[in-house]
Amino acid sequence: MPAKLWNSFTAAPHRVMFFGGALQAVAVMLWWFYELVTRFGIAGQPATWSIVPSAAHAYLMIFGLFPFFMFGFLMTVFPRWMGGGEIPPQRFVPAFSFLLLGAAGFYAGLLINTTVLAVAVTSTLAGWGAALYTLLRVLLDTDNPDKRHPTSIFIAVSLGWCSLAAYLIWLLSDSVFILRLAIQGGLWLFLLPVFASVAHRMLPFFTSSALPQYAVRRPEWPWRTILAGSAMHALLQLSNASNWLWLGDLPMAFAALYLSYAWGLHRSLRIPLLGVLHIGFAWMGLSMLLFGIQSLISFTSGNATQYWGLAPQHALTIGCFATLLIGLGTRVTLGHSGLPMQVDKPVMLMFLGIQLVAILRVLADMLPGQNGYWLYIAAAALWLVCFFPWVLRYLPVYVRPRVDGQAG
């Protein structure tokens, strides 16, 4: 890469991290789409992977996609939240490099063997650790008296690193419990607490800056209820007590839905870039309601079988996490490149398309029938249809100077 482009590319942490995340947003689903169409005999022959496809899919979505965007966002906002200085490239470029090598190596490992996979995961652990150290430096080197959200997020990202380490141990030991620990930890101790904390910190702020006469409301109890319920969900899952999940999930649903109401979901829809963030968070309340009902049905019937399968989980991961990722990613990309803070029709169609992806994937598990696999494939295909244009539009932005001539 020419020096001028490299200097622009490494001018801010969100540039390099979002670049990797954008590539992964397409790559993880291209791999999964290929796996689905070959598995169900639609095209080609089923490939032989070095690990079971479901474990690879879980890894790629939890540890291979979201962390790029998370670290890009957190390395941008941590200094602003606490009044610290900008993070220099010598801290975030090594983290990005190890993460990118780990991402590429994981696909190679799927084709070769688990040894290559283990090396790739180790590289990701190194990049994740370097990013954690960078965030910790900001956390410790500033004197801001209010560090509640940064501290909670840092703990969750640290637990994500531990969950990733558990995945590496599973690759080396083939322990089913360790794999469950990695996946459940990644979902409930890492992803959900981070998204909930970022939303609690940022959605009222974004809304107050966009809507007139908006009173900022940031009640503590719903946020703490979500964090406690998420930890409880992980512990109950690992204890094989899924029939009791409703004890934590229903309070989480109430807390999240209350926040959607308190933050003015209906008013936010007037502004598309703001509305998509509120819609994404609303999926959290809906998904936890589905989790709670699913568990309550099993509890009252005495049947350990999970009705609706993974429908609630995909309502959370696609409906909530992916929508928030797109909304925050687009907002940061526009705001830190000097582009207008508004989205046009193609981007709005992409936002709406991801909502349809979530609905299709939820229905694939909720609707009876032998041909449900078409819904799986349709959801994966639509994800690609949505993300390809987004990547093509914004990937060049990360290697070009800001259009307004400012630094960053």
From TrEMBL:
It comes from Sideroxydans lithotrophicus (strain ES-1). The keyword rRNA-binding does not apply. Keywords: Membrane, Transmembrane, Transmembrane helix. The chain crosses the membrane at residues 16-34, 54-79, 91-110, 116-140, 152-172, 178-200, 244-264, 271-293, 313-334, 346-367, 373-392. InterPro entries: NnrS. Pfam families: NnrS. This is NnrS family protein. It comes from the Bacteria.
